[in-house]
Every structure is written in structure tokens, then in C-alpha cells.
Design goal:
- There is one protein chain.
- The two termini are about 20 Å apart.
- The model has no long low-confidence stretch (mean pLDDT about 90).
- This protein has one domain: YaeB-like fold.
- A five-stranded mixed sheet has the order 1-5-4-3-2.
- Helix 1 packs antiparallel against helix 2.
- Strand 2 and strand 3 form a beta hairpin.
- By secondary structure, the chain is of the alpha+beta class.
Length: about 100
């Protein structure tokens, strides 16, 4: 299986990487690795995480207050958001 980002999800993900990198050199890289590890777990076990609405599931990122929101598609997962868990929880709902 593979994965694909919604274009806005990929933009927000890259912005979060930049944010963490500005805080401390290498922290953005660490964040990116944790998110990609989360994505790989979701690709390998797409039904393992809770449904949070419709067919959207949320897999939590280790070390950072983020979740990867995705739907399971025929050829992999479609990532609708890499979401900070403490900000604007419903901003992604119009993306599918």
C-alpha cells in the first residue's frame, strides 16, 4: 500500500516542519520522521486506529501533539490532515 496527501495537508505538514526547525535545529527533521513513521504504521495497519467521522481515522504521532487523519482507499491511504491536536479540530472536514 501507499499514501497520498491532500494538497492542503501537505502544505500544513511542511509548515509544521519549518516551525519546529525554527525552534531548534533538527527538531523539524525529528517531527517529519515521527509523522512519516505514523504514516507507515497507518499504511501497514489502516484499520487499527479509531474512526473520528465518516470514514476518517486518526493515528497519533509520537513525541508531538499531532495526529494523521486519513481515509483508506483502494490503493493505500489518503491523508486529509496532519493536525495539531490542540488547535481548530474541525478545519479539515471540507477536504475530502
Amino acid at each position: 500500500m501507499s499514501f497520498e496527501f491532500h494538497p492542503e495537508a501537505e502544505i500544513k505538514f511542511n509548515e509544521a516542519i519549518d516551525y519546529y526547525e525554527k525552534i531548534e535545529a533538527g527538531l523539524g527533521y525529528d517531527f517529519a520522521i515521527e509523522v512519516y513513521d505514523t504514516i507507515q504504521r497507518s499504511v501497514s495497519f489502516p484499520k487499527a486506529w479509531s474512526v473520528i467521522g465518516g470514514d476518517i481515522r486518526r493515528s497519533l504521532v509520537k513525541r508531538f501533539p499531532f495526529g494523521v487523519l486519513y481515509s483508506e482507499e483502494n490503493n493505500g491511504i489518503y491523508i486529509v490532515a496532519v493536525m495539531h491536536l490542540h488547535r481548530f479540530p474541525d478545519y479539515w472536514k471540507q477536504r475530502k
